[in-house]
Amino acid sequence: MANEEDDPIIQEIDVFLARSLLEKLYLFQYPIRPASMTYDDVTHLSAKIKPKQQKVELEMAIDTLNPNYCRSKGEQIALNVDGTCTDETSTYSSKLMDKQTFCSSQAASNVSRYAAAVYKKGELHLTPLHGILQLRPSFTYLDKADAKHREREAANEGGDSSQDEAEDDVKQITVRFSRPETEQARQRRVQSYEFLQKRQAEEHWVHLHYYGLKDSRSEHERQYLFSQGHGLAENTELIKSPSEYLMMLMPPSVEEENDKPMAPSNVLSMAQLRTLPLADQIKILMKNVKVMPFANLMSLLGSGTDSTAVLRCVQQVALLVQGNWVVKSDVLYPKDTSSPHSGVPAEVLCRGRDFVMWKFTQDRWVVRKEVAAVTKLCPEDVKDFLEHMSVARINKGWEFMLPYDEDFVKKHPDIVQRQHMLWMGIQAKLEKVYNLLKEHLAPKKQEAQSAHPLLVSGEQRVNMAKAKAKQNYGQLEKEFQRQKAEMKSNDASAKTDVPNIRIKEEPVGAEEPMDTSAFEGLNNGLVNGLHPAEGSPEPVNGHLPGGCIDRVAQELKAFVSSTFKKQFVLTLSELKRLFNLHLASLPPGHTLFSGISDKMLQDMVLDTGCKQILVPFPPQTAASPDELKVYALWEAGDTYDQHRQVLLEIFSRNYRVRRNVIQSQLSQECGEDLNKQEVDRVLK
């Protein structure tokens, strides 16, 4: 009250809202104009506008008679832009830069808070602005001058060319047919910058008439800035409370709201979360937490939430695993998305994650190598699946992160039964997709199926192991004596059976067997990749019968031949990788699962007509020894065998060669000049 007494009201002004120029009134902001430019020279001024884009171009006259105007510079600019010829297309018909073009840009995206005000006879009349445009000089005439300069240079360079030379410049063109555009590709194209620029360029200019400040038409239009009627019926917007009036006059800025710092995507505001529908709350919580007991979910949703409604909603976004809720794969990997690691589509990721979830319904432990072998996904994707719902244990595998929720299973047997039926359907789909073996389908024996697992400390485990060892000491002693007696009897019989024993012949050298550990999960329960129950011949001391050896050699030779006919040049590392992929595609029990060493693979490569290329790689290379061994197909039976052999000999002398050296060497050795396309084909 004291402040109001110190600042008394001097005058009250009536405010009126003018509607005549609503959505028609623009505010133009001009730059500081030079003294030689005038806005009142109507005869030399034109304007045009693109209404949808709110883009304006004004062409204003420059006073060339002003002492501040540099005439020589104006003539030089006009000469550079138009050249010596003067016609209708010339920018400066007077051979002098006598005008300047201004282009507009939007000064503010939201102009609803701005208005033009006129004060007259104690009344303030407001007209809302439809746009605020800033006018800046346009220098497109410089682009035109550069284009003229390039045309003149091209004409001077091409003046002496003949018709024969023009025919020599004929270039080969490739005709391509466009494929049907998908909806996703069309949306990307519509949202691209190039498409928006094209749409803006397609809008036609609307030419305007300019009227000076003292023109009678301007005087007439200015009258529309005043409210045409002072009755209350026309100004109902101003019959508001003071707070409402201020809100209309100064609405909250959208830009200011957007400038507020955003919270991280994995941080949830519980107050904001509880304003959403129940289904959305549960979906957001499960998507962020991924694995949650039902009791924790109810506590996060707040008191008073109906548990029946929660159960109905959670089954739409999660599946039951060991009494706990795990978010569904299609919630984490929506349709039309892909893996950030490998680019695999969402459908394949969902199948792989469903397999991991299904494995945890069978056992508390999952082996990462087995998941990778079955799903054929990259290690990063498999690790993401496992980290969503389990914890890594050293030398054991991945354990489900939450204990078995026995309370929920006992309270909601109907939900458990329904989820069991869902898992049966998922299992049937996984069997078809991954061709799962019986070893994968049979659940392992575990105490967790009868009772939830207990958490035991390390000291308790040691004490339990000691007690168990004491109990089993007597049994172990008896077993040891029995084995000792059997060994004595075996030694006695071995003297008579020495001629029948076949000793395994190992190759001399430091060759290691090929690492096919990535595919061990495919052969669980198999002997050398063969089912013993299928009547396959068992190896004796590591050797296969003669017929099996021949079949292995034939299969290996067929693989090597077909691979080198496609690739021509391969390192040993890449060949082993392709061979492992080939093994993964074979059915269980195939002869190639008998074990292929590196030496056997290299010998087969040399037997199929390939040669090892001793490429002199630099000593400081970081490549592995297998990557330094390069093999190439020496004769493919095509017309490029000779060229290919010359090229391989070149690379046996240097690991990096220039293209012109290769082309000259090929021409010299083969006795013919090869064109660019033929050299490219040989190099490829």
TrEMBL record:
Q: Does the keyword Aminoacyl-tRNA synthetase apply?
A: no
What is any one GO biological process for this UniProt entry? Answer: tRNA transcription by RNA polymerase III
**One cellular component term from this protein's GO annotations in UniProt:** RNA polymerase III complex
- From the UniProt entry, list the residue stretches annotated as the region Disordered: 146-169
Domain of life, source organism: Eukaryota
Q: Which residues form a coiled coil?
A: 459-486
Q: Where is the composition biased (Basic and acidic residues)?
A: 146-155
Question: Which keywords does the record carry?
Answer: Coiled coil
Domain DNA-directed RNA polymerase III subunit RPC5 C-terminal as annotated: residue spans: 444-684
Protein's name in the database: RPC5 polymerase
- Organism lineage string: Eukaryota, Metazoa, Chordata, Craniata, Vertebrata
Gene name per UniProt: Polr3e
